[in-house]
Amino acid sequence: VGQGSHTVIRQMAAQALNLPLERVRLVASDTASSPGSSGSASASRTTFMAGNAVRGAAEAALRRWQDGERPAVAEYTYLAPKTTPFDPQTGHGVPNFAYGYVAQAVEVEVDEETGQLRVLRVVCADDVGKAVNPQLIEGQIEGGVAQAVGWATCENFITADGHVLTPHLSTYLIPTIADVPEHVESIIVERPDPRGPWGVRGMGEMPFIPLAPALVAAVHDAVGIWFDELPLTPERVLRGLGDSVTR
């Protein structure tokens, strides 16, 4: 879907086989020809899960090649470690087998006369474990920030009596290029996950998650008001400013 996972999978195969990238061809999954379903590419899991499977298959194929097998074909299935729910009495448990880590800072400008917000700058530090492709990581961070700005400032899905009142882009607003922060600084942190392929951690959703709370905190720092509803539309911001004056 454009996040660069096909490129990263080829890079991982090339690394495991000790081949140049141009020698690796990816036959991507296709619902028209692939049996069954591997599920969605959600949960920031593609590089972690597919990467472990690709590494295992590539290393097995390389061993067969070195043993003289022609063609050297191998399959490998990566099964995620088992998880356990939290015990309500002790609080102990392993609800997830992998975690992502991210920190984000936001600089915002608030027009107190119109309620308009402008996100000026975002700094996002993302622990990716091992950066297989730094350029694609920066693209993921910038895309996640743009998406989160929309969710936090203007995307407002409204329904009434079972009817959608915002069915079009003229009513359900998304950020334009003028609304995206002009300065997005990507900080790539590499603390390897021992279970990830070459230490990789999933990171696709990480840049999206912290922007809204960081933005709300930045608005509070600017005007002294906490907001607990999103999106922070001009109307909502003005209402909050007005309520603070009448208190």
Essential attributes:
2 domains, 32% helix, 5 helices, elongated, alpha+beta
Structure described in brief:
Helices cover 32% and strands 13% of the residues. The chain has five helices and five strands; from the N terminus they run H-H-E-E-H-E-E-E-H-H. A hairpin with a 2-residue loop joins strand 3 and strand 4.
How are the SSEs ordered, and which strands pair?
Elements: H1 5-17, H2 46-66, E1 101-110, E2 117-127, H3 134-153, E3 159-160, E4 163-164, E5 183-189, H4 211-223, H5 234-246
Helix pairs in contact: 1-2
Polypeptide structure, described:
With 247 residues, this protein is α+β, with helices and mostly antiparallel strands. 32% of the residues lie in helices and 13% in strands. It contains 5 helices and 5 strands, in the order ααββαβββαα. The protein has helices at 5-17, 46-66, 134-153, 211-223, 234-246; strands spanning 101-110, 117-127, 159-160, 163-164, 183-189. A 3-stranded mixed beta sheet has the order 1-2-5. Strands 3-4 form a two-stranded antiparallel ribbon. β3 and β4 form a beta hairpin. The longest helix is centred in the N-terminal third of the chain and has 21 residues, at 46-66. The chain is elongated. The model has no long low-confidence stretch (mean pLDDT 92).
